[in-house]
Amino acid sequence: MLGTPSIPDRYGNTVDTWKRAVAEFNAYGAAARARGMCFSHHNHAEEFAFATDGPRVRLYDVLLAETDSRLVYFGMDIFRARAAQYRFSRRPDGTPENPAASPAGSLSTARRSARHLRSLRAPCG
Question: Are 15 and 54 in contact (CB under 8 A)?
Answer without folding.
Answer: yes
